[in-house]
Amino acid sequence: MSNSKVALVTGGSRGLGKDMAIQLAKKSFDVIITYHSKKDEALKVVTEIENLGQKALAIQLDVANTSSFNTFIQTLSDQLSEKFQTDQINSLVNNAGVGVYAPVASTTEDQFDNMVNIHLKAPFFLSQKLLPLIADGGSIVNISSGLTRFSYNGYASYAIMKAAIESFSRYLALELGARKIRVNTVAPGAIETDFGGGAVRDNKDLNQMIAGQTALGRVGLPDDIGGVVAFLCSEDAKWVNAQRIEVAGGVHI
Question: 0.85 cut: is pTM over it?
């Protein structure tokens, strides 16, 4: 059996998930990422991780489709055995997600259901189905948002799912305590990525407005987040449990 620890990061082909995967590799984790449609980008991340001396693998997964989870877990189990010489993962990072920008008055039921499926049902049931594969003493990190603490127009359906995830993390930490599995939440602030159509990255006025409200005087970058997630998955964070850590440079303090 392999000595390396294995981390699974959903939505690891780009943006925050990519940086999380690379930072985990730098902490000597072997890394499995999932991707929805961007296979080429996912394979580039795999190569980058392998160049750091760790094993890596990308598996396709549509987190919005819970009926596909059993097949995914079978594929994951097979690959763990074949490629990683283990039958367990040590860390799960529930990162995959998309944004919806719409005021409450015009949010459609389809938009709302999509947020439920991607940001609430997916982490809940993927975590549930992965519990037999997560090693005792392992860790789970769920990704939330600064938008659960402060409010911007147009993000209601997204933010309330993330608020639910923060509650889920605490309950999961309570229930998994007997297995010494830690569960924490990372809540990024506004980050320059393609998330939500790339608004923070591409809209100069929005970017400057958020930077002006942030103690450290800028918006976030993807590499501001990954190291915090990797820390929470590592033994360095062995006594950090059931916490929400906002990684936002001191915005709206």
Answer: yes
